[in-house]
Specification:
14 strands, six-stranded parallel sheet, single chain, globular, 22 helices, alpha/beta, 12% strand
Length: 578
Amino acid sequence: MRIGLLTEGGYPYVSGDAVLWCDRLVRGLEQHEFDVYALSRSRSQQDGGFVPLPPQVGRVRTAPLWTARDDGAAHGRRARRRFAECYGELVAAVCAAGVGSGGAEGASDAASRDASDDHDQADRFGSALYGLAELARETGGLVGALRSDTAVRILERACRAPHALRTAREARVPDLLAVAAHLERALRPLSLDWYGDDGLGAADLCHATAGGSAALAGLLARHFGDVPLLVTEYGVHLRSHYLTIGPDAAAPAVRALLGAFHGRLAAEVYRAAAILTPGNAHARRWQERCGADRDRIRTVYPGMAADRFTEVGEAPDRADPSTLVWVGRVEPAKDLVSLLHAFAEVRKEEPGARLRIVGAPADAEGAAYLGHCRALAAQLFPDEAEGAHAVGDNPVSFEEIGAPEAPALPDAYAAGAVVVLSSVVEGFPISLVEAMFCGRATVSTDVGAVVEVIGGTGLVVPPRNPRALAEACVALLRDPERRARLGAAARARALELFTVEQNIAAFHGIYLEIVSHCPVRRVVLDESGEPLPFATPAESHVPGRWTGPTARALPRGIPAWATDTPVRATPLAAEGAR
């Protein structure tokens, strides 16, 4: 089958999100054809080029999210009125507050009325969204209209409406301008020319590798071409938005309005998708809270290459029995400060223990945090020396992958008997899975999908609790047999659930499930112009020919009577064409 793979800020670009996962998926499903539709987030990403593409990738179409050119199309009176109606409905649905709270009515009646109103607002949002897309397709000029003063005035009226969010009614002019600019950027996929029969309309299935803009393109392919949509979220887009726009990043009105917009968009994506594939139960719960039907959710864990950790996993005795290891990207969310304080407690019980922190910062904030952690480690653990003439040594070391002490990632995990994860915020804990592949016992904080990943093969403690973290580490350092049992169980669990092979097999089955229930309807004619019933089943894209050399396919939407060869209508042919 032909898959339209929708990405944002990642594959097929060299840098970005989920590049490795998408590349493994495409290469693993070589029996299918892939057309990649990629949205770039920056000029540097776009200029960095593509990763090497396998032969099953037929074509790549790209569009920038970081900029958009006005096509110069001027709206006439009718188009302007149509834009005002659609955009007004869209922002009214975003600004609308729930009704039916309190009063003499019962709580159940209020809840029922709230649910009914929310459903109405969701329908209102979806209809307005598709109306703007149809306007962009028919007349163009949507980018200019979204940047116009008219759009800001429409947004202001929606914010001042009687049933608008209280925070929205407090929006000032700078807040309105910021929200209008964000909506223009978020709605840029509506103006793309990807949705015809020469693009996503020719696909048997659209697979969006993330929510947000990538899934929005899939929504439009479904709307214009009835192409079924699969949405994979290894990091929930709505959750990422909430974490990005915090109290220090934007005014309350801006945060409320943008949160409402992305919530409405997520709900529409979850409603329209044929199947949703979250990467863990944590993401699944987010989707269900946003209205996703649990019967259409299939949890598919990220696939990771296990072979690079085989040597370490099969030789657990290489580890230093008194060393703790932390591996990851250095940033405040990893809470290395709590880890250092916990290690101070560990040293009181196990004076010979050592801690190796292996990782590098991703940005300036991470670099500053690393400097803070180095200073704290120097304060908590003054250099120790065995004698008056020996060189002092700190029990805490900060290293990076590629250094002599850790030339490769498996070497970092091999250095310690216990791997520690101290995060306060975590999605799918990749470093934890890598430690499991290496057969290491682990101590982790109960955040994100940690408990789901560990599944009883490691110790889990509350986040921001150095004492509990220290007690768990000491318990494992003192019990080598327990460490060995947990490490072996962890490796077996990781090999069963988190490999590339299981990930590819899961998506192959889901692809077939979707097209068997939601096949794309195309008319195929034989040599005489007669429709061929069941001429293009979902399994037809395999080596060999199923329909014979004389069959030809028509683009979706072109009836048989519009071809050069007259078609003789019969009841059987009409039934087959449907």
